[in-house]
Design a protein that fits this description.
Blueprint lengths: L7 E5 L2 H4 L45 H15 L3 E5 L2 H4 L10 H16 L3 E7 L5 H7 L6 H16 L6 E5 L10 H4 L9 H26 L4 E7 L3 E3 L4 H23 L4 H9 L10 H7 L4 E5 L4 E3 L8 E3 L4 E3 L15 H15 L3 E5 L17 H19 L5 E4 L22 E3 L11 E3 L1 H11 L12
Parallel strand pairs: 1-2, 1-12, 2-3, 3-4, 4-5, 5-7, 6-8, 7-11, 11-12
Antiparallel strand pairs: 9-10, 13-14
Length: about 475
């Protein structure tokens, strides 16, 4: 099996990390808008509203809201078949619970999707990507409250109806399982010291599962052509050694990370998760009919982010820690690491694809993968990001092998941050992923000028040859 001629090559961004215009045209505050900047050593701070004198990188970001036509044109120049982005819920419903949507927000996404189609680019849209109205946090306590299920359904009804025929690929919640490791971004949860953390997280997750199932059913009803997936954070987990306790620790970690996709793809809670919650004294409150909804509203495909594999140990270990996308593990001595400590493992992507497909028997879609690195603009204006080309080349080889040798159906590939944007984890700009450089620094200085990197032309050749030419741009 080779890559299909309609394989969806493209790139990925998120509204809160690129759009800016955080209060323009009626947009409300989002959970991203109250996060200050940070860096590799300083954590981002969550503030109660906007504080004077603080820098919030999402407020301007890379100003995609005003520059989307220029950026889409650059994506088209690379040959994108698709563009993964998200809709900012707080542009459509500024506080989250209004009776009617914001017309200016509706209009912006019509214009954005029309611009994509002008170049033959298929939008791939995440409905909630680390962005929900801050008003829902203040008024309801975010996804703690069952009422958010109906508010999310109202939001979905509006966007499915408005963009019918313009968007057919959707995902409900970005990295929904990240709530287990960092509950603010995916669910707006700021857990108080007196609260039972596990209880709060899994009750909120249940509300999101029900909301996702309702969205799937509603999306299919409004447009049978819609394909609606989940989006899960995942990477294969290795045991540090062949000791049985290490093997168990690795398996336990994978089970935890896969539990959310189990609910969305299989339509029921896995037994291991239920037993784990029972042992922890967690009781999930369900409404009548929830289990039926989960069974009926399973997703059409598995969207996932893959940046690195992980290692777990079940015994004391002297190995250091390897940081990653939200999660952390034991450092793997056989793998190199990025400047931010994320370990590079292309084979791990192939193994991840095997595991996900064998578990769910649904098409896969790699919707995030990439290398965050510091880029240097040379005196002649060039940006020679061979390290990024090397990273992406090896990961493309890995997923091609999974398709061609392992027979795994793969819908597409959208490398993360196809244009430089604000890092969700650190709030930095210097941690760059894109094929397109944006002149902006960690303090918010810069012209916002766009500039093609060396990887731009390389990826253009990859797409033009449907992944056959991975060495079209040679090192200088």
């Amino acid at each position: 099996m080779a890559l299909d001629s309609n394989f969806l090559w493209g790139g990925a961004v998120a509204a809160n990390q690129c759009e800016g215009a955080y209060r323009e045209d009626g947009k409300g505050l989002s959970v991203a808008d109250v996060l200050t900047a940070g860096d590799a050593h300083t954590k981002r701070r969550l503030t109660d509203g906007i504080l004077e004198g603080e820098y919030y990188p999402s407020h301007i970001a890379i100003d995609f809201y005003h520059r989307y036509k220029e950026d889409i044109r650059l994506f088209a120049e690379m040959g994108f078949k698709c563009f993964r982005t998200s809709i900012a819920w707080s542009r459509i419903f500024p506080e989250g619970d209004e009776a009617s949507p914001n017309p200016a927000g509706i209009r912006f996404y019509h214009n954005l999707f029309d611009e994509c189609h002008k170049y033959g680019i298929e939008p791939v849209v995440t409905i909630s990507h680390y962005e929900m109205p801050y008003g829902l946090v203040k008024k309801y306590g975010a996804w703690r409250d069952r009422r958010l299920v109906d508010l999310f359904e109202r939001y979905c009804r509006v966007i499915f109806t408005e963009y019918k025929g313009k968007v057919k690929y959707w995902m409900t919640f970005n990295e929904i399982n990240a709530i287990e490791f960092g509950p603010w971004n995916p669910a707006g949860l700021d857990i108080r010291p007196e609260e039972n953390r596990t209880q709060v997280i899994y009750q909120a997750a249940h509300h999101q599962f029900v909301a996702s199932a309702k969205a799937v059913l509603l999306g299919h009803e409004i447009d049978p052509e819609n394909q609606i997936g989940c989006m899960t954070l995942f990477g294969v987990v290795y045991p540090e050694t062949c000791h049985p306790l290490d093997a168990k620790a690795a398996d336990d970690m994978m089970s935890t990370m896969l539990a959310f996709a189990d609910v969305q793809a299989r339509g029921e809670y896995p037994a291991r998760l239920l037993n784990k919650l029972e042992r922890a004294g967690v009781q999930i409150t369900k409404a009548p009919g929830d289990d039926t909804l989960l069974r009926r509203g399973t997703v059409d495909y598995i969207g996932f982010s893959y940046y690195m594999s992980m290692v777990q140990a079940g015994r004391p270990t002297e190995a250091g820690t390897a940081q990653g996308n939200v999660v952390a593990g034991v450092k793997n001595p056989y793998l190199p690491s990025s400047e931010w400590g994320w370990q590079v493992d292309p084979m791990g992507l192939r193994l991840t694809m095997r595991l996900l497909y064998e578990r769910y028997q649904k098409p896969l879609f790699i919707v995030e993968n990439g290398l965050g690195a510091v880029d240097t603009v040379e005196p002649d204006g060039s940006i020679n990001d061979d390290y990024r080309i090397d990273y992406l080349r090896e990961h493309i080889k890995a997923f091609k092998a999974a398709v061609e040798e392992d027979g795994i159906p793969l819908m597409g590939y959208t490398p993360w941050g196809c244009i430089d944007l604000v890092s969700a984890g650190t709030g930095e700009m210097k941690k760059r992923y894109g094929f397109i450089y944006v002149d902006r620094d960690n303090a918010g200085n810069g012209t916002l000028e766009r500039r093609r990197k060396k990887s731009f032309d390389w990826y253009k050749k990859v797409i033009a040859t449907n992944g056959e030419d991975l060495d079209g741009i040679r090192r200088k």
